[in-house]
Amino acid sequence: MSRVARLFSRSSIAAAACLGLAVAPGVTTMSPRSGLTSLQAAQAAADAARQPSPQAGAFDSARAWDHLRRQVAFGPRPAGSAALNECRRYILDQLKSAGIAATQQAFVAKTPAGEISMANVVATIPGRRPERIILASHFDTKRATAFRFVGANDGASSTAALLELGRVLKAGQRELTIELLFLDGEEAVNWDWGVTGGDNTYGSRYYVEAARKSGTLAGIKAMVLLDMIGETNAVFPREGHSTPWLVDIIWGTAKQLGHASSFPNVVTEVDDDHVAFLRAGVPSADVIDLDYPQWHTADDTLEHVSARSLKIVGDVILASLPAIEKRSLTAAR
Predict the structure, then answer these.
(1) 301 CB-contact burial (10 Å; exposed 0-12 / middle 13-18 / buried 19+)
(2) CA–CA gap between residue 18 and residue 16 (Å, rounded)
(3) CA–CA separation, 289 and 262 (whole Å)
(4) Which of 23, 101, 183, 297 minimizes the number of CB atoms within 10 Å of its CB?
(5) Residue 30 DSSP one-character state
(6) 112 and 80 in contact (C-beta within 8 Å)?
(7) pLDDT tens digits for range 229-241
């Protein structure tokens, strides 16, 4: 995640409770980074033990956790790097194993560091109609030179969830086509993104422009972006730029599933990959928890993310899709 217009804090959620809004439970204090390998193993084992055995057609948090872990194992994955190429191949291999057709959308981005070759991954789960709902994530990590940044939450968590969502959705059929969109180049090339305007969201901006030129943009009925969804005790405020009816469905579904504390009725505004779609007239929503102390630090590692958070988001998105599909077919563009 790169740029923020207005950021909420957990203290603001506490204040909101006085107004009768849903409040997230207290944040678990994490220990300083030490003994990383054993801590990671303990976290994974504890998370897996807390999850019930998944039913057929259900989001499997253990599978999602494994996707997250494998991405982190590639190390830092900034756009244009060999590690990101390996990660992209992993995504393509996993989609192929799930029986989901996927293509690479290659392009060259002009950045403050010069031209960088990038490639989105576009996967398609056909529905009875060609119009599509996009579920998206970025899979690159922030470019850092002063420390090692592996992006367990910022990049890996949402990509892991998207891969598992694809596996579940492939097993059924919907009225609308589902497109899984793995976006490259969300993160800025400059560490200080404020120096150069537009130094971020390269993949989403390229995708939208390509869809505009090919005439396929009108076929996108809705776009749901996942970003930074893995924090332990994650809290997702309503994103203020997002399309209201789409936000209402997702946050309303979360409440119905008993996750109102994770999806409270407070608002933040974030400049993220969904903005290019919004500007093109596509109903879009961003599910993101940016109140994350480890954001863009060396501590965005496995010990600070949770399979339970992946499960919550996965369940909410799956349960939201029927209503999104129904509403998107009639929504005015």
Answers:
(1) buried
(2) 5
(3) 10
(4) 101
(5) P
(6) no
(7) 999 999 999 999 9
Domains delineated in the chain: 3-18+40-48+56-328 (3.40.630.10)
Residue with tokens 């976290």: 43
d(CA 301, CA 295): 10
- Between vectors from CA 264 to CA 275 and to CA 233, what angle results, nearest 5°? 95
- And the tokens for 91? 């995504």
Give the tens place of pLDDT for each residue, 53-96. Answer: 445 579 999 999 999 999 999 999 999 999 999 999 999 999 99
309 phi/psi in degrees, rounded to 5 = -65, -40
Residue with the two structure tokens 């291999």? 93
Contact call for residues 134 and 105 (beta carbons, < 8 A): no
Give 46's pLDDT tier (boundaries 50, 70, 90).
low
Strands 176-183 and 114-125: antiparallel
Residue labelled with tokens 């993104």: 193
In terms of Cα–Cα distance, which of 282, 306, 285, 286 is closest to 294?
306
Please state, in angstroms and rounded to a whole number, the distance separating the CA atoms of residues 84 and 97: 20
Q: For residue 141, what are its two tokens?
A: 């990590």
Contacts of 219 (CB under 8 A, 6+ apart): 130, 131, 132
DSSP class per residue in 237-281: PEETTS-HHHHHHHHHHHHHTT-TTTS-S-EEEEE-THHHHHHTT
Q: Find where tokens 């948090």 sit.
A: 61
* Sheet of strand 101-111, all strands in order from the earlier edge strand to the far edge: 101-111, 114-125, 176-183, 129-138, 220-227, 284-288
Contact 241, 2 (CB under 8 A): no
Q: How many whole angstroms separate alpha carbon 227 and alpha carbon 158?
A: 5
Q: How far is CA 180 from CA 35, 95, 161, 196, 200, in A?
A: 36, 10, 11, 30, 20
